[in-house]
Predict the structure of Betaine-aldehyde dehydrogenase.
Amino acid sequence: MQFQPPASHFIDGAYVEDAAGKVIEVIYPATGEVIANLHSATPKIVEQALSSAKSAQKEWAAKTGTERGRILRRAAEILRARNYDLSVIETHDTGRPIQETTVADASAGADALDYFAGLAGMLTGEHIPLPNGDFAYTIREPLGVCLGIGAWNYPIQIACTKAAPALACGNAMIFKPSETTPLSALKLAEIFVEAGAPSGTFNVVQGYGDVGAAFVADHRVAKVTLTGSVRTGRKVYASAADGMKHVTMELGGKSPMIVFDDADLDNAVSGAILGNFYSSGQICSNGTRVFVQKGIKSEFLQLLSARLEGANIGDPMDPKVNFGPMVSHRQMEIVRGYIQKGVEEGARLVCGGKQLDRPGFYLEPTVFAEVSDEMTIAREEIFGPVMSVLDFDTEEEVIVRANASEFGLAAGVFTRDLTRAHRVAQKFEAGTCYVNTYNIAAVEAPFGGSKLSGVGRENSKLALNHFTQTKTIYISLNDVRAPY
Ligand code: NDP
């Protein structure tokens, strides 16, 4: 099999196998074919990964930030040089079109490594003056062994987003990819070693949720950074709390996108397409509740339906294809269930809604109109190509409705009125807000959720705070005066 790795796990600089672990079948979503067989980690593998990471972390942290940065930068260069090959793996693992994976996966991962490579040498504490010449200073210390747990939509990008700041700060990382998309993280582990990172600095261990849970519960893990659903986030957060571990939680969303009647309609439709159908809708920050002001609703829907006819659905390895299958049969069935619910609860199916008559897990881009706030499709995260269009009259009304969600990952507004744009952005209860655009995710800017969508921030300088702890050291230049 072309995509079969030498073994399931990568620990201490080498591929490792324990065939006693439960089989993980890796399936190409465009055909349903099995492209690799791996094994979920056994307790022996989990132990190996932990002890290797624990000892590698000391060696890694002893390097200067500049040295660590140089290695991360070298890893970024290798990722870029291998971008196409890595994109082919990512397309076979996720089903996402090669048109997407060549620009948004390994290359975005390389950007993360470059960015944090630049910051690695700048991690410093501060000097705090105290009376009579005394002073304190602070040291930014790494946390130790960090655990990264990934979702299946952007596997190598998620692995890099977590590894780059963790490693820049002198931590080691054990990464557990989603068992649905386990392949590319192994390549990343090879690349770190090739770039000069000590063996064990970045270990990859495959497994189902129970493997992630075993790591979270282990006392040698100092921090857990998870990208996944709220359901999993709750379990992981609770288990991490038991050991008082640091956490970053990047969870789900049901984000609003508001289109006012003064908006540039072409841009708003483009934003709605990007924010609902890129990666077949499998993006956490998608703006899946599209609130359109009543006066422009029919024009918006007409334009949107016409544009969706231009979706080129097919073989994701064809560079012209811009809409691929869902990641798995299971995910497709979940999304079909939501489409069914939308119809049953009285939303109007404007277009799509059907599975394509071809092998693989293909669903049409689907748009519902006349959606009301109470409907299931307007409340729950679907994580598939399903857009809900809701009408509104006034700014005051739509802000209240947009914020009436347990999630708070992202939000967007389309309007030509600058004052309104800022006013609305300030009122959104969300971690990331977009004005006249949607779904940009730059490594330089913080990303993360409010409410149930998460804890902490990834990307940007803020991520460094989540991978270090501060130590304060008091220094006295004076005699010690005790009361007796
Ligand atoms: P899941 O929550 O099902 O799984 C996420 C990861 O956690 C997987 O690797 C999973 O392993 C693992 N896991 C499951 N149970 C446990 C447990 N008890 N302890 C430790 N680890 C566990 O999410 P999906 O993979 O289905 O991804 C989709 C979700 O991710 C959506 O909700 C989406 O919004 C969110 N997401 C958030 C992003 C963000 O940045 N905010 C970005 C991308 C996605 P296994 O797969 O083997 O069960």
Notes: The pocket of NDP is lined by residues 149-153, 176, 178-180, 208-209, 212-213, 216, 227-229, 232, 235-236, 250-253, 284, 381, 383, 409, 449, 454 (CB under 6 Å). The radius of gyration is 24 Å. The chain has 16 helices and 22 strands. The first strand starts at residue 9 and ends at 11.
